[in-house]
Amino acid sequence: MRTLLATIPVLVATLALPAVAAAEPDCMDCHSDAVDAKEFEASAHRPKGEPLGNACRACHRGITVTDDGHEKPAPVECRACHKPADEKLSRSTHAEVGCGDCHDEPHAVTKLGAGDHKAEKTAICAKCHEKETAEYGRSFHGRAPGATVATCSDCHGSHDVLGRSDPHSSVYRLNLAATCAHCHTDGSRFAAEEVSLVKEYFRSAHGIAVTKGGLLVAATCEDCHGAHSITRHDEAGSMVMRARIPETCGHCHVGVLKTYMDSSHGKPFREGNVDVPVCTDCHKSHRIRSHFEPSSSVYATNVSPTCLKCHADAQYVNRYSFPGLRGETYTESYHGAASRLGDPNVANCASCHGAHDIRPSTDPKASTNAANMAATCGQCHRVDDPSRPMAMGKIHLTLAEENHWLTGVVRNVYVVLIGGTMCFFFFYIVIDFRRQLVDRRAARRAHGTAKPTSTAS
Amino acid sequence: MTTILVADDEDSILQGFTAALGGQDAYAVTTVGSGEEAVARLAAEPFDLVFTDLRMPGMTGIDVIREGRKTRPDAEFVLMTGYGSVGTAVDAMKLGAVDYVEKPFRASELVRHVRKAERARAERIRRAEEERGFVRFTPGMRFQHVVLMLTFFVLTVTGVPLMFPDLFRGVFFFEDSSLLRSILHRVAAVGLMLACVLHVVWAIVTDEGHANIRAILPRLPKDLFDFFEDIGYCLGLRKERPKVGKYNWVEKFEYFALVWGTIVKIVSGLVLWFTDAVLHVAPLWVIDLAKVVHRYEAILAILSVVVWHMYTVHLRPGTFPMSRVWLDGKISREDMLHHHPLEYEALTGRPAHDEHGATHDGGAAHGGGAAADGREARA
Known about the structure:
The complex is a heterodimer of chains A (457) and B (379). With 457 residues, chain A is mostly helical. Chain A contains 25 helices and no strands. Chain B is of the alpha/beta class. Helix content of chain B is 63%, strand content 8%. Chain B has a 5-stranded parallel sheet with strand order 2-1-3-4-5, sandwiched between helices. A two-stranded antiparallel sheet of chain B has the order 6-7. In chain B, 28% of the residues are buried.
């Protein structure tokens, strides 16, 4: 009730303004040195259709001028006009921050038109958040020109800014991906493939854990890309540049990183070789999925195609002298054929060689070391009596390197037998078919001529 | 040879028969002096033709026909009557006699009547054979064939994808279909093995099994000659197809190829099925070998069925669109005479020749004779 009553004089004053204006003295008569008339004239706060001298009263209210001047006016209430912003601000983490802390001298305030105002915007935040804005300035967002590149408020909000640990914050871990996706799934700003890549995140193991599972520790955008310091993968020093991927993933996957670094792939990586696969080569980045999902690049039936991307690539085979035809021999084997058919239970590359812990067979710790082969094969090929030894021999069989000469002989015998049999079949079918047709034609002719004679007699 | 029983109380008639036919190799004449004797003789042994006098002391010719047809329905009966008994002759025809002869008759007339009765008998047998056909596959054999066909089909459909995995990825278009594939393959394999056991038991235990196995065993050198003669015939180098029994060289070849292939498939398949056990008792190359054998034997078997079996039982002119033997087990008289003349002769005791005058079955000379007889009969 009191607030309602309080608004009455304001309303009256507003309505009566033109009439009062004539009677009231011009503020500029006394305060011409306090306000730059030109700036105020151009400001967004300059009420339209009002003599400049009286416009002050729109904000500086309750002034009654007597011959002795006037009492000190009540403090200006921005809230009187900017109520929604004020309400947001009062709920935000900036509740204690005044309007003026961010916004310019109120008599000079102008509306920001279209165009790149990144510098102006970030300068406001930089007043308090110096370190973050400095990082931002060096980031891809910070350096990229254009009005549409994200600035502080695009991610954090403006009047409604909340701390990152607040579940309602746009940069809360469970909300961050949606905040980034707001721009990064916009087809008018990004190429279709980039948009689809970002969308893939939401179907990935990480994305599902975050958005569906509400798992705070699952990776979201900033964990791999950084936040204020975000850089592109092709920029030196980026968290997602090839040479830093293991480190970036290993930030969470500590155990896997340790295993990887000691493996056939990880050792050369440590020596600076970037040909070796890093995490994303096998697992993908935004498309990363659980190995239980058939669409995953590391699902049982997809493991061998994933490995063969490099291990059947002539470029790498030649450069590193991979032992011959490991891909083809697997693909042609029963394991390979059944796997290609979609059987997830047969052995794939990782079943025998391991995944993160892959090692050369000369390494005594390798699952493919001769001493460990029985145990490795025995994972699937078990018999009840463990004391019975298991047959040993070459696994990746080529035609030239078979375990026994008989296999090759039998194969050749069959090739000749099948070829010969088919040749004979076709030969006999052709001559028999022709003869059958000849016989039938002859029989019809004989039947046709015999009939009239027999009826005549 | 035609066997003839003559019953008459007049010796002169009996002697007339013996005189007219007894000297010819084509006829075996038996004479009896009374109706009772004739009936007793018929009960003891079969005759092709029976000539009986009407009026005899004791049993009459009518009685002989009535009783004789009960014991020997396949025989043809001819009534011999004196002048003026035409009405009785008509009665005899109603009872099933094929003809009647008026006494007295000349030798040439007698021969004509005998030939007429022979033709009537041949015609009746031909009609019966045409109507009934011949049994080629017993129900037991058809059952074995159907089991074999089904298991072979399932084994092929579930096995071939392993040869072309990329082409058949997700064979049955749902998740874990690869598991279903391997289960179905093993189920069909067990079915095939049971069919093999059944076949062996059938071959050992049943009479039809004995007969068919005996018929399909290779006969050398005949089967080898048959093979070359058949090729020669197809190429126009020979005038006739070889005369064969129940199974020709094609069928024998198919059967033994199937037996061999099935044994090879079962042995190699079991090695691959029980890999874990084999890995612990045999060297690794045994499994490699089983894989090679199982795969190549499959290619051979599937191509043989698709190319060879489909030709012989479906696409071959004369058989197209399908031989029905696997359904009703029967073969027509015409096919029997054309394709299995020796079996026909063994079954019926009659020469396998085609009365319609086809010239490629070796019946030309005999057929010509029959046609001459026909003209004489009509004249």
